[in-house]
Every structure is written in C-alpha cells, then in structure tokens.
Amino acid sequence: MPEGYFTHKIRGLGLGFLLFGVLLATTATAQTWGPDVRLSDNGPGTWPAGNNAKAVAVWGDTVYAVWGEGDFEFWSGVSCTGSYDKGKTWNVYYWISENNSFSSSPAIAVYEDNIHVVWSDRIDGSNEIYYRRFNGNDWEPVERLTHGDSASSSPSIAVSGNVVHVVWQYQKGDWDADIYYRRFDGNSWQPSGVLSTGTVHMTRGASVASLGNGVHLVWESGDAIHYRHSHDKGVTWDEDTSIVRGSWLVEEPCVTLWDNEVHLVWVDHRKHDRGDVYYKVFDGTSWGPDTPITDSEDETFHPSVAVSGEDVHVAWSQDSGGYEVFYRRFDGNDWSPAAILTPNDWEDSRFPSIAAQGNDIHLVWMDFRNHTNEIFYKHGTLEGGIEELPPLISDDYYLEASSESEPLIHYGIPKAGKVSLVIADVTGRVVRTLVSTEQSAGYHEVIWDGRDDQGNQLSTGIYFCRLRTQEHSITRKLVLLR
Length: 482
Description:
mainly beta; five-stranded antiparallel beta sheet
C-alpha cells in the first residue's frame, strides 16, 4: 500500500463567493498550457473514473485530483492529492480507500475546505459505493453508502454547502439497470431511491451537479440522454425528461453548472459510427440546440465539460492515429479550433477530466508514456480580458444573488466594518434583515429562506437585496421562486 499522505492540511478558504468563480469584465481571447505534471507513481498502473465522473475539482487556488491505482488483478485502491497554488506544486498523494481491495470509478467534489470522494469497491466481496470526507483537518472514516448484492457501480458526486449528492448505477440484470440517488442533508445520510423510473432501456453514465438548492442529474439509456432536476436540495425531483433522443446511440453524458445555466456534453453517433462530441445548454428557460463539437470519422469518447463565466471548456479523448486528449473552448461568441493537448509518441492518452475557475483551467488524464498507466495534470491559462478578484480579499464591493426558493447570496467587502444586508419588496419596504453586524474584509455568503422578519413565508415575485456599509451601498434584483 502506498505510504503517501497530504504533507499539509487542506487550508480553509472560507468564502462562498468562489462558488461563482470570478467576475468577468470581457471575454478571454486565448489560452496557454503549461507542462505535463505526473501526479501518480504506481508501477502496476493507475486510472481515473471511466464513467465521466469528475476526477478533478477546484476551490480558489486549491486543486484536487483523485484516481484509482493497483495491479488490476490482486488489489486496487483510491488515491487523492492536492495543490495549494493552482497546480504549480503538488503534495504527496493520500490513500483514500485504506484497504487493498478492488476499488474503481473514483469521483471528487469540493466545497470550501471539505473534500468529498466516492468510489465503487469490493471491500467485503460485494460491489458497493463508498464515501469519505476530508473535513478541513482530517480524513474521516470511510462510509458504505449501499448495501445491495454486488451490483452498485460508477458513482458521481456533487456538493453545495453541507449537502452532498451521490448517484450511481445499480445493475439488476444483464440488460436491466437503474440510476440510484442518496444525499447527506447536513446531518445524516438519507435513504437511497431510484431516479430512472420509467426509463425503458439499460441506464448508466449518471452525472450530477449542484448549486444552491438546485440539483441536476443526467444519464444515458442507449438512444436517449435523460434529465431530472430538484429545486429543494434533492428532496423532490421533477419528472424525467429526454433532452436528447434519436434512433442512434448516445452515451457518456457529463453535466456542469454556472449560475442558472446547465451545460451538457455527450458522445453522439447520429452522424458517425464512432461518435462525435455534442454540447447543449439550458439557459434557465429552455434547452438550446444540439451543437457538434467534433465532426470526424475518428473514435471520440469520454467528454468532460467545465464552465467559468462565458467560457465553456470541453476536453475529450480521440483516436487520431493514437489516443490523444483534445480541447475546445466557447468564449461566449465562437468555438475555438480543436487543439491536441497531448501530442506524443506513446499514443495512449485517455479519460480527461476538466475543471475551471476564472482564467485557470485544470486538466487531468490517464497516460501510457512510461509504459504503464499514470495520472497526469496540465494547467491552462486564459489570456486577454479576464479580470480576476483575489481569492481571499476583495478590492471592491461585490453582491450577487441567485433566483430560487431559498436564494444564495454572495457578497464581498474590501475592509472590516459594520455591514447591513437586507431584502426589500418592490415598494422598497424592508421585509427581512439578513445581516446587521461587524464583519471582516473578504467574501461572505448567506441563504435567505424566503421568509420575512416575522417568519412568514413570502410570495413568489421580485425582491431586492441591498448591501450597505458606512461607505458604500449596492442593490441587486432577485426572483423568489416556489
């Protein structure tokens, strides 16, 4: 078993603002990529998740990566590592799964200084889903989330605040599977339940994302990509909707969020037998058209998507005489030409996972350059037009509020002082005081539960959030939904 461990404790960032990344002044026009950095060091071999779950996560300057490693025959485990300086240097990796068992398909999510990892494992002979959390100081004990009959696999995880969302595939028969869901509500794990009810084909490839109260789930069923949405942190769910359907094969969906937008990529076989990468976005009102990212006879697979502001980043594997990692970016107006990020002679770079925040892009993938599968990392930087707020202390006042049933409000102040944060109705009358106290400089967040100061539930409609200090005042409109 590897003896590596994080050499420093994960530093708490303590700022909710970074859930939204950075303020964008104009759209970036170009990107540059740094050198390849090898993260793993395992003789038998390593691999990321093969089901499009996220293998990389970012919060502020800190980047985390997770992967499986082992000899594929007698043992395998899950490892995790972190960088505190946007990928410039990396800590020694930590063995997450503890046991020499048969671990696979690890996935990672992060919120502030909490790291959340799930994976599939056969610790006691049964293939089940396991979970472990780093709480900002220590790794907590491993928890088993499923108790089935050797049929749970391919988990995906998302987190918002202290609520954790996990989805996975449960195999009931050779051609019979469902997508299951379980959530940690901030106090305890709630019972699991099936979300793919009504799907008539084999279901797999679940991908989940969360922001505020919203949870968004996609999965595949052969000829369709399905979508479900929860407005209340996974307590209840909207009906299953087929957002992509045809007489051709669709597979490997991957979903991510930005504000009220839902961004989706997948592999689509409508034009080429070996598949193309497609993209579409839900803008808060409706789903946009299916947009091809590739148009090639080459085999394409395992697309991953990340979004920061107007910039959409997509990475995928493609067999162009050898498996390489490709990349394209949408800058709000146009898609950039496809770029090969791993031009090499070993012809086997696969399973990319991408994350982005501000003008920083983080990519991990599996590579065979040393005659064994290892995990590599590459850092990309957007140039020309992004103005990024410092990660910990604001140079200016900032206020942003989401529109939902319990709006999440982010704000930043450049120096310590008395702060007032209130909600007013359309007449200007203050209906709720959220903050009225001395606060330190930096970024803060608060959730408005949709009630007034007397505890009464307010009606759906337009309200105004007002931030005020002794020197400055900002007001932002929000919509309270039901």
